[in-house]
Amino acid sequence: MAGVLVIENEEPLLRLLTWALMDAGFSVSLSRTVPDAAIRAGELDPTAIILNMSMLAENKQSEIKSLRAAYPLACVIDMLTSNVEDVTRSGADGYAAPPYRVSDIVDQINRWQPQS
Fold first, then answer.
1. Which domain holds residue 59?
2. Which of 8, 3, 45 is nearest to 28 (CA)?
3. Mapping DSSP to helix (H, G, I), strand (E, B) and coil, where does residue 4 land?
4. Which of 8, 63, 89, 92 could, after both became Cys, cross-link 78 (CB 3.0–4.6 A)?
5. Which residues are registered as beta bridge partners of 22?
6. Pick from 87, 101, 74: nearest CA to 7
7. Which residues of 3-17 are buried (b: 16+ CB within 10 A; e: fewer)?
8. Is the dihedral of CA 56, 102, 7, 62 positive or negative?
9. Distance (Å, rounded) from C-alpha 87 to C-alpha 29?
10. Where residue 35 sits, what CATH number does that domain have?
11. What is the dihedral of CA 92, 96, 102, 104, to 10 degrees?
12. Phi-psi region of 91 (alpha: psi -120 to 50; beta: other; left: phi over 0)
């Protein structure tokens, strides 16, 4: 079962995303901040990281670099806050724009995980 690390600081969104991913068959770990997620790198081995944090593009790019350093094999999916953001700026491997569809996120994770 593929593991997904969800980084989200709003409790209702964290719950919804967690339930949807668990329903899709993923094991889910949670973190409220990128620094907390980076500290936990030794205990987690996610296939994918979903970053759902509202922040300036430059800050998001820096946070994604931190995640890549901590989890070099994981796919980073940036959940954009609007569908008009410049998706090339954050440096993520995948993107989700509103309206969010869990099936789109699941497809991105499944494309990334190694085939057995």
1. 3-112
2. 3
3. strand
4. 92
5. none
6. 74
7. bbbbbbeeeeebeeb
8. negative
9. 25
10. 3.40.50.2300
11. -80
12. left
Cα distances from 114 to residues 25, 48, 58, 81, 85, in angstroms, run 16, 11, 30, 29, 29
Counted residue by residue, the chain has a size of 116
Which tokens sit at 68?
A: 């890549």
What is the separation of C-alpha 31 from the centre of its chain, rounded to a whole number of angstroms? Answer: 10
Does residue 16 carry a pLDDT above 70?
yes
The DSSP bridge pattern shows strands 75-79 and 48-52 to be parallel
User: CB neighbours of 111 closer than 8 A, spacing ≥ 6?
Assistant: none
Domain count across the chain: 1
The pLDDT tens digits of the residues spanning 53-103 come to 777 777 888 999 999 999 999 999 998 876 555 555 678 888 888 888 889
Distance CA 13, CA 54 (A): 12
- Is the pLDDT score of 116 beyond 50? no
d(CA 42, CA 70) in angstroms, rounded, equals 9
